[in-house]
């Protein structure tokens, strides 16, 4: 890794208009599926455009009461060996406290997204945010998802619209991007998040997603994502609440050509 001589850390430069699509090897979209009564965008996709699924790591709520997508994501990461090709995110309904039907709904979303994107279902992750106790409006989602997949793009606007689509009580979309250099190659990290209250250590009432174009082993990337959460999100308290859907997922595409070996 290319580090400064006086510090054992990488030097990062913040990007103007940084967002989830800033890193190479990713596309995204935010769109309206009709899940929110407001008519605002309520569906988001993040897709790795490389030939192989991205390294994937996740950190989730420690609440005893968890939404179906949380446990399903944990299972998917284990099944895939910490690899993922896409994340499907809906806002409006949290799909929490929805019983067996909530599980089935989330698994049906995975199957549909996998068929539309053309990947094995084990490489699809899902997240939901919104009203607890409400099932996803599956008729609306399944009707809209083919169109939404066709709208995927890698532009800044695509990234910003993706961030707006996951908002609930947020007043503004939250996006960021940084670049650094590893092994003589430029590496970019992009991100987006939702959540403006009920924030407490060990996750919060939030969803957060990170993309990076570095190459890394999936298990090692999982450790890195978990360590980063410990030093950042899990240090924040707003009003002492965690929730059912708290999720942080990081994807690393390898598209920069820079590879990080374990322990470096």
TrEMBL record:
Keywords: Acyltransferase, Amino-acid biosynthesis, Arginine biosynthesis, Autocatalytic cleavage, Multifunctional enzyme, Transferase. Pfam families: ArgJ. Coiled coil: none annotated. The keyword Transferase applies. One of its GO terms (biological process) is ornithine biosynthetic process. InterPro entries: Arg_biosynth_ArgJ (IPR002813), ArgJ-like_dom_sf (IPR016117). GO terms for molecular function: L-glutamate N-acetyltransferase activity; L-glutamate N-acetyltransferase activity, acting on acetyl-L-ornithine as donor. SUPFAM superfamilies: DmpA/ArgJ-like. Gene3D superfamilies: arginine biosynthesis bifunctional protein suprefamily, L-amino peptidase D-ALA esterase/amidase. This is Glutamate N-acetyltransferase. It comes from Timspurckia oligopyrenoides.
